[in-house]
Amino acid sequence: MPLKEVNPLRCIPRISYTNLFTPDWKNHDRQCEPVLTSSTPVPAVLQVCQEARNYGLYQKTFSEIATPGKGFQYIWANLDIDIVDIEKSLFKDFKPVAPTIRRLEFKRKASCDFFFHWESDELRTFINAKEMYVVCADGLCHMTSLGRHGPPALLCSNENVFFINLKDNKRVFRGYKGLAKIIKIY
């Protein structure tokens, strides 16, 4: 039996926490420029093996939205498999890189009119998103307003939309069937 060639350098999906952070200056006369931050460490394979960078498993991403003159601002990610979690950052801030994101996670208050009536339209810029993870910051009970107002402008198929309970991350509802269950429960 012939031996299969094994590639020791493999990617595993991970959540890449990415945020555009605007410093809160005490002196408000200064213009506050947003800074790209990430709490996700550089993938271990890139720290261990210099050759791994040549394989293209991970790329430096999001430098397009960084503020010039603020040093190196990028994250290492494999956008084909990694979930990009922008938390509370505005969708408009990620507009230049939105088409590159395949899996998006964000945290919003479902009870917030700003999200439903204005910001949710900006989700259309994530044209290549295959999966979206919606973390309801004020509890799943507020997701029932999705049933009344209609879902936000999600581009991926409805079975690839996951509604996550912030208080219990193990409680996940999938697609519009999951949304119907949320409405039934609450």
Question: Could you explain how this protein is built, in words?
Answer:
This protein has 186 residues and is an alpha/beta fold. It folds into 2 domains: 13-23 and 32-78, no CATH class; 102-186. It has helices at residues 44-48, 52-55, 113-117, 144-149, 175-185, and strands at 15-21, 35-38, 59-61, 75-77, 83-87, 103-108, 131-136, 161-165, 172-174. The N and C termini lie far apart (58 Å). This is 2EXR domain-containing protein.
Properties at a glance:
7-stranded mixed β-sheet; 5 helices; 2 domains; globular; 186 residues; two-stranded antiparallel sheet; alpha/beta; 2EXR; 9 strands; 23% strand
Q: How much helix is in the residues?
A: 10-25%
Q: What count of helical segments does DSSP give?
A: 5
**How many structural domains does the protein architecture include?**
2
Coarse morphology: globular
Specify the structural class: alpha/beta
Which regions contain 5 or more consecutive residues with pLDDT less than 50?
A: none
SSE order, one letter for each helix or strand: EEHHEEEEHEHEEH
What is the arithmetic mean of pLDDT?
79
Distance between the termini: 58 Å
InterPro entries: 2EXR
Pfam families: 2EXR
Domain 2EXR: 25-84
Protein name: 2EXR domain-containing protein
